[in-house]
């Protein structure tokens, strides 16, 4: 029986602060266990990726107590900035770092150099790591997120139920979306912003003030985080997912929407175009706009809200794309292969 130690952020199961990275980690831990692996989880609280002295010491103690030769899968949020903690154990432990979002810097370069293998969660991320750092390509594999099957959303005739699922932070582009919505205020729509609002309180407060000043506070609802059945019901009620991120390595919310046949309006940045993908016939199941461009976002929203034939085409493409999505078993199989190869190296 294979065994793996998994080092995870301490908030992995916090329903008040969900993230794509935490959801991914939880899925792969469950999946490995279901395949017969002995999975030993080690949740490490702290201000990752900027740990304090005590947090570094605790991680060093954890790694020091692990048996030789057993693979260790470390979430990149924990591992990418602590090369001094990883390097002393690199010769006796097969260290596999799971990179959701490159931090990009000298410390990450040294951390990844100490790893036996690196697993990226998208092709875009792998390409970025290979471009940024001196890593051997055979050491960096890709295990994209899966998605669970879901019923097709019915949608509404006018397409006015807009949805944005992301923590309210500058990188996720809520300010861009707010400006775009102001430009289409003459049309019929509502927009739910689902995600934590306390990661950047000042930013969220400014957005609330802006929404009130522009008269949109009754149409844009900041719901806070949702998980499980509540989040599933939110996706099922949506007509269009809007992902206005300034930077995104994959975008799990995109495939969550597509799994329900919901089209997506996304920024043309990072891994988002590949995640949106194409239907088997080549049609895009959504619209791409330049990142950080409120005018282009507003224009795309106006097209969606005023062109019934466009809505029909995108909904059809999204339902076709839905059939091509990979499930979590594919992700777990790729990760399991990486762990076995690291152990044998």
From TrEMBL:
Q: Has UniProt tagged this entry with the keyword Lipid biosynthesis?
A: no
Q: Provide the alphabetized UniProt keywords.
A: Glycosyltransferase, Transferase
A GO MF annotation of the entry reads: glycosyltransferase activity
Known PANTHER family for this protein? D-INOSITOL 3-PHOSPHATE GLYCOSYLTRANSFERASE, GLYCOSYLTRANSFERASE
Xref: InterPro entries? Glyco_trans_4-like_N (IPR028098)
Domain annotation Glycosyltransferase subfamily 4-like N-terminal: ranges: 91-149
What lineage is on file?
Answer: Bacteria, Bacillati, Actinomycetota, Actinomycetes, Micromonosporales
- SUPFAM superfamilies associated with the record: UDP-Glycosyltransferase/glycogen phosphorylase
- Give the protein's recorded name: Glycosyltransferase Family 4
Q: Could you tell me which Pfam families the record lists for this protein?
A: Glyco_trans_1_4, Glyco_transf_4
Q: Does the keyword Glycosyltransferase apply?
A: yes
Q: Gene3D superfamilies annotated for this entry?
A: Glycogen Phosphorylase B (3.40.50.2000)
């Amino acid at each position: 029986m294979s065994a793996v130690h998994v080092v995870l952020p301490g908030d992995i199961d916090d329903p008040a602060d969900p993230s794509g990275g935490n959801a991914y980690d939880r899925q792969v831990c469950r999946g490995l266990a279901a395949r017969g692996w002995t999975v030993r989880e080690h949740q490490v609280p702290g201000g990752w990726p900027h740990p304090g002295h005590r947090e570094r010491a605790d991680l060093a103690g954890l790694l020091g107590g692990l048996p030789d030769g057993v693979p260790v899968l470390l979430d990149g949020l924990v591992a990418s900035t602590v090369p001094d903690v990883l390097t002393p154990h690199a010769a006796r432990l097969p260290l596999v770092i799971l990179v959701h979002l490159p931090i990009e810097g000298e410390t990450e370069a040294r951390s990844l150099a100490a790893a036996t293998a690196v697993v990226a969660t998208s092709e875009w991320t792998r390409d970025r790591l290979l471009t940024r750092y001196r890593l051997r390509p055979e050491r960096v594999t890709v295990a994209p997120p899966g998605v669970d099957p879901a019923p097709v959303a019915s949608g509404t005739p006018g397409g006015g139920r807009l949805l944005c699922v992301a923590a309210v932070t500058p990188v996720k582009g809520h300010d861009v979306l707010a400006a775009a919505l102001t430009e289409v205020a003459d049309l019929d729509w509502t927009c739910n912003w689902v995600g934590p609002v306390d990661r950047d309180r000042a930013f969220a407060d400014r957005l609330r003030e802006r929404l009130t000043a522009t008269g949109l506070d009754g149409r844009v609802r900041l719901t806070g985080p949702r998980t499980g059945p509540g989040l599933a019901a939110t996706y099922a009620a949506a007509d269009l997912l809007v992902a206005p991120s300034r930077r995104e390595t994959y975008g799990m919310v995109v495939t969550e929407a597509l799994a329900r046949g919901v089209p997506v309006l996304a920024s043309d940045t990072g891994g988002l175009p590949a995640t949106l993908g194409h239907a088997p016939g080549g049609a895009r199941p959504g619209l791409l706009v330049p990142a950080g461009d409120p005018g282009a976002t507003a224009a795309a929203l106006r097209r969606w809200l005023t062109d019934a034939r466009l809505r029909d085409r995108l909904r059809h493409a999204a339902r076709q794309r839905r059939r091509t999505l990979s499930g979590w078993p594919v992700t777990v199989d790729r990760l399991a292969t990486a762990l076995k190869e690291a152990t044998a190296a």
